[in-house]
Amino acid sequence: MARWAERLAGIFPWPGRSTVKRPTGPESSNPMHPIEEIRVRLDADMQKLETLIADGPGAGPSEGDKALPKQFEDLKVKYTGKKGEISGLLRSMGTLAPEARPEFGKLVNELRDYADARFSALQAKIQEVEIAGSLSGSSLDATLPGYRVPAGSLHPMTQVREEIISFFQGLGFEMALAPEVDNDWYNFEALNIPPDHPSRDMHDTFYVDDKVVLRTHTSNVQVHYMETHRDQPIRIIAPGFVYRVDNDATHSPMFQQVECLVVDKDISFANLKGTLFLWAKHMFGTETTMRFRPSYFPFTEPSAEMDVSCYFCKGSGTLDGAGGAPGQPCRTCKTTGWIEIGGCGSVDPNVFGKVGWDPEKFSGFAFGFGIDRITMLKYGIPDISHLTRNDNRFLKQF
Ligand SMILES: [Zn+2]
User: What's the pLDDT score for residue 389?
Assistant: First the structure.
């Protein structure tokens, strides 16, 4: 403090600002320098607030405690605000002799640092008081264990869908989407299903009007994508909801499919089988085998139904080796050892023609399966409605 006074003495006289007398000491007959005067008042104001804090929160937050933050802010603005007293000192520097200004500036900056440090320390104390006050003023017992927030989990179908998507993305497939309400052209005609085609009976379609349908399969993605990516190699995976007029234990009017399409030069049925084998082993275990049965779809030629060896009886048809009684039949595969999971085939040249691609140059394959069905198989769920009933007792198991 002595040094402070000495340095202040160096920039006296102050032109007629302060009339406050020093309270004590040998220089008490001199008026205080404005810098010192501000510091003395700041100390006194701080002291008042600190005394309030030291009283502490009583049984509950007192009126004094509640007013603390406001008083603190007012004080801070008064001294260190833009129009506060410390800034005021700097603004008045022009009235000093030029040679006194550098030292004066340094002293004001020191005062500002001093004030900032004290305000920071005080703010921390006030926050402590606030927290202590809010704890003691309520019935909260901070030592009690907290309420457990129930952690949700992804729906089993979402988990299976994500797993399928991530597997194919790993193989370089790109995700593609298309509208669920679509034109007849995308859902049927471009896929080689003209209006009077008998295969339309296979799709129990919801019609919005004569030309607009709720898509019956995700194959409409193929048409949209081929139209917008003409003559480029295609590797897409298209998950999404599809709709059919169908409702029983294994069918729901709204269900999820996932469909893949690969188009390039020299794509063969062997590529299709290789891709599907990889996927089946990933999804149902490395022992899984597959079989393809000749089938018919208007948009693929040749077409096949694909089956995987039963996940539960390991293809044996009985549950002997899978924890069942000797000879106990496997209900999941109806003792056949195989489970049908979807359809596939090479892209029909007519489809290429419809979307304006050259079937002589390009070939491809497509396959699709129901995510609901894969989920039921993977987890042994007997009734498809479990998947949409939103019963927590069921969903909590995943
Ligand atoms: Zn089985």
Answer: 86
